[in-house]
Amino acid sequence: MTPFDYQRIPEAAAVPAQLTPTVRPLAGGTDLLTRLKACLDRPDALVDLKASDLGRAIDRVDGGWRLGALVTLSRIQHHPGLRADVPALAEAVSQAATPQLRNRATIAGNLLQRPRCWYFRNERVQCWLAGGEGCPARSGRNEHHAVFDTDGPCVATHPSDPAAALVALGATVTVLDGGGGERELAVADLLVPPTDERRVEHVLAADDVITAVTVPSAPRSTYLKAMDRAVWAFALVGVAAAVSADGEVRLVASGVANTPWRLAGAEAALAGPGLTPEAIDRAAAAATDGAAPLAENGYKLPLLRTLTHRALTAVA
Amino acid sequence: MDESDLPTWPPGTDLETVGTGVPRREAPAKVTGGAVYSSDLRLPGQLYAAIARSPHPHARVRSIDTERARRQPGVVSVIAGEEGGEGVTWYEESVPLFGPVARFAGDEVAAVAATSLEAARDAVRALNVDYEVLAHVVGIDEAQRPEAPSIHGTPGNRTTDPKVEERGDVAAALAAAPIRIEHTYRTPTAVHNALETHGAVAWWQPDRLTIWASTQGVTQVAQMTAEALGLDQSQVRVITEHVGGGFGAKQVPWKDVAIAALLSRRTGRPVQCAYDRHGENVAAGKRGATRQRVRIGADTDGRLLAIDAELVGDSGAYQTAGEAAALWGPYQGLYRCDNVRTSVTYVYTNTGPAVAFRAPGYVEAAFALESAMDELAHRLGVDPIELRRRNHTGVDQQQAKPWSSPDSLPLIYDRISALAGWDARPRNAPPAPGGDGGVRRGWGFAASDWLAGKANPPGYASVELRTDGSAEVVTTVQDIGTGTRTVLAQVAAEELQLPVEEVRVTLGDTAAGPPSPTSSGSATTPTMAPAVRAAAADARHQLVAAAARQLDCAPGDVTLDHGKLVAANSGSRTVAEVLEGLSPAAVHGWGELVAVDDSVSVRTFGAAVAEVSVDTGTGEVRVTRMVSVPDCGRVLNPTLVASQIIGGVTQGIGFALTESQLVDAELGLPVNDSLEEYLVPTVLDICPIEAVPLDRPDTGANQLGVKGIGEPPMIPVAPAIANAVFDAIGIRFHELPLTRRRVLDALAEAASPDESEPA
Amino acid sequence: MLTLTVNGQPHPVAVEPRRILLDVLRRDLGLTGTKEVCEMGNCGACTVLLDDEAVYSCLVLAVECEAQEIETVEGLARGQELTAVQEAFVACDALQCGFCTPGQILSMEGALRRRPDADEAALTEAVTGNLCRCGAYRNIVAAAGRVAATSSGGAG
Q: N or C: at which end does chain A have fewer Cβ atoms within 10 angstroms?
């Protein structure tokens, strides 16, 4: 970990203008500190958002909920209203990380965490995503890697469970920029595959700060996760299913692509109202349409079909 | 007094302290943060060391430029390259401490001492090492190929010639056997990952070196360090109060000790050198992967006619001292069989060195042998436990002498069968191939033996009686978290008829007395408990003799009765009175165990039953219940024995289901070199465990009848689970661990019968 | 200069911003009961309470903790009197090498701060982020049960 300065700015609205590519925001720190320790990030300064008046409230709003950016995963997990009204989010949060990490990690930070790819995180490897060349995972140990969209420069999967749930729920984030402008962005549009010019998994600029996450209600929603141990592992595959207020069913998988992956084929296969057993069978079978697994992760396909089937059955 | 001069405690003896669940002595210190480990030491002026490790799996170190590192703030000393190692050599290959050739990614090339750990780490990053990268090889199959790069210039990258042991005529017996089973089994590289990493604080003062080490063997660290650094053994003192886990990896000294010592000599200050978690995963030992080609032949009743096992293990880049991975063991000894051949080869690879890990070799071999036995039982339609009974032997067939406890295994079979409800277990209908057939359940069984668990002489102890009525046991042996302090106190208390609270135990310091065994081979209790009992008995005899003099009667007329010495006809005195009468002389008992009975073969047997559920839709294997019945002879403390059993079963579940160090072959790097990706079990991965030791004194082992318990309970766990998975889904796995990937791939293969079967 | 409040006592410390809370507790304050194992939030041995919530002190900067209450394993017992959680760990032999023990205990203490009547399942869930390599888990679950029995008994 290289040395850096530590700053507190009381007014959240004043934070974005201070941010640069080397002056970075610090919230829960549960991902950022691991990157600093691995020297993946070497900021000159950190601005502690917790020392500001950035949102910490969980508010009922028209048609859903508004979560301040600093709301911790623990508070979501233990919030009766969210558990009842957006179970997919509460379930995703509950299956993410551990109690200690959830006590610290914020919902906005969770969306912006970097991949856990074991090459990306390895100090001894300079992969494309870390600013170097090539993707050792493509020909190496890739049992945890992507099965969709695998012809891009990086096959790391997005590490967040809540992200998949939020995309399925149609959630949005409120973003404040360095010029004082505010914009609303769907989580689905916030998270995008990295490109040569922008080797991160989101579209935010250096001086953007997420101030809130808005989540539409979907009492019929769920998030299922498969890990190699009972708890405390990143998803091999996760599936979020949500029935929106207007009856639309959205299916989003984690652990299968650079970003939360919309299971468009499965959604299309549902074709029509009513989650009948036949429709669920069809959708589950179509969940892996377009998949292009790597040498070691073909097992994710049956896993994805099973979780899709079970998630749909749960919300039917 | 020698422990063999004491009478045994026959079964049924009325013991007061031994056999009770006396609470672990150091528990209050451990729950309040008061227990001090090597890593907690903060001596005045202490420096912190960081190690530079090769990022390449195989490379020649051309040069190391230390200038920039030396100029970093806080840096006090940098040692690098062969010169920096000052002639100290390491491993069985006697390579320089910082070699001119790095043979695995993580091999040590330099070290820095600084006033803080950050400063030391910064300086390591500032080192400029020029490497000439050499071709590397990982994986035992690849390393054996003729075109593989040579790691130490040995044929086929073998560490030595294969170790072959054969009795009878295996080829002929196999050919004639009506039933044959043949498979190649594989077990993964597993990492101990003790929570306290390897580490030591060394303080070199003019005429002596003191080392606070996180080790399983204070004596061995002292001896090997003295030898490596050219000191007299009397100049090296090693202290180990508490150890944050070892599991075999700390049974030999690692380079942390030497690096700390060399840096301390250079700086004149105490130096702490502890591996970080990365170092712990790549350079501090592992259970090497194995490939086991097993052929067994049996008659139609299931009696074994022949066993042929071609066994290959991964040694990593170097050989370490300590227990070997005895892969041949179960094949040679667990069952009666006249024709057995085992061939064991260890292969060098460009990965971290292997070292003993809880029942080394037996855990790996038991998976293969006990999977094959289960398959044989199913093939013949014989109950798996009945099949083991038919193949029972009461003798050590390698040494042609009886087991010290020849009827242990049949009794274990009876006990575990009853406890588990084996005969009433639900029988599955044959499953449909493939998933998603929902969740299916299964039961599995495996038996085990273990070559150790007997005394590893010599064991020495003293017991001193105080006029306040208390006793102090002193021995150099360490307590690595198994409860050694507690059971030694119990044994002394029993012999002296004292409340156990009145017995103090001082241990873990080579300055306190003669050498003690390393805590390996489950030997600590069977070596030290008899020695302590002898010391306590010696103290008791001295006390009785003194009382007899004071009471003016023959020693034979005096008995010790709970703090009182009672003479048949001439009254009584309290222990304190007798000791005061002796003053200034004191009662100082001496006990030893210096030899073991060679006429019998001491083994520790056991068995496990696993119940599992397998989700055929997600590949998830959950162990839902484990029953473990090991034989550790007399149980000195049922609470601590149960803890050892559940610990071994827990590690066995990890080995069966999740643990595997994965190495990128092209880069030669372990990819899951952290506790994030190397998955050890969590609390929710572990099911209820019924831990029920046989509790039969084995007086062939020693006069106490006590054997070790640390390692054996792990041995049968993985095969019991794999056999239960077969029972659940009808798929026989020949490779561990049973991750979702492995299970789902197998289910997919089972569902498409066109494809060829796995080897 | 930064003031950390640890176990109710203010401790002025001079540390650079990159210093990790765990390291400051262990090195600067000599509170070595909190253990360093993985440094990456992967094991739980460094768990402390920060304003009554269990967190991994290896993933917290010391400078973040100004004005917060930090509690470590050294601050739990009152003299010889152990807390219910500590007592249960001793009684159930819920430890072997003891290296994970302070973290396990603080995780359960944190769950009890959130819910004083936490049941066995909740207290077990509280330690899902604490690895025990010796494999004392079943006894840790037993300790959770013992604490739950005491605390619900106490709550009437």
A: C
**What are the tens digits of pLDDT across the range A227-281?**
999 999 999 999 999 999 999 999 999 999 999 999 999 999 997 778 999 999 9
- Rounded Cα distance between B417 and B61, Å, is 59
Q: Which of residues 161-220 of A touch B (CB under 8 A)?
A: none
The structural domain count of chain A equals 1
With CB atoms and an 8 Å threshold, state whether B648 touches C135.
yes
Distance CA B226, CA A295 (A): 50
> In chain C, what are the domain boundaries?
2-75, 84-155
* Per-residue model confidence as pLDDT tens digits over B238-288: 999 999 999 999 999 999 999 999 999 999 999 999 999 999 999 999 999
Is the Cβ of A46 closer than 8 Å to some Cβ of chain C? yes
Q: Identify whether A34 is part of a domain.
A: no
Is B711 catalytic? The answer is yes
Q: Are B98 and B86 in contact (CB under 8 A)?
A: no
Q: List helix spans (H) across B235-304.
A: 255-267, 277-283
Is the CB of residue A99 less than 8 Å away from at least one CB of chain C?
yes
Q: What is the CATH number of the domain that holds A304?
A: 3.30.465.10
Asked, for residue A6, whether it belongs to a domain, the answer is no
Range of the domain at A164: 58-112+157-315
Fold of the CATH domain C2-75: Ubiquitin-like (UB roll) (3.10.20)
Query: Could you tell me if C32 and C26 are in contact, meaning their C-beta atoms sit under 8 angstroms apart?
Result: yes
Going by C-alpha positions, the residue among B317, B318, B320, B286 that lies closest to residue B192 is B286
**CA–CA distance from A157 to each of A144, A205, A235 (Å)?**
8, 21, 9
Report if residue A222 sits inside a domain: yes
Residues of chain C found within 8 Å of residue B639, distances taken between Cβ atoms: 93
Give chains near A: 3+ CB pairs under 8 A.
B, C
Question: Per the CB < 8 Å rule, is C128 touching B675?
Answer: no
In-domain check, residue A187: yes
C151 lies within 8 A of chain A by CB:
no
Q: H or E segment at B359?
A: none
| Nearest-CB residue to C73 (from B26, B33, B649) | B33
The answer to whether the predicted template modeling score (pTM) of the entire model surpasses 0.90 is yes
Judged by CB atoms closer than 8 Å, whether chains meet at A231 and B619 is answered as: no
Quick check: C104 contacting A, CB < 8 Å? no
Residue range B505-511: mean pLDDT, rounded = 98
CATH annotation of C84-155? 1.10.150.120
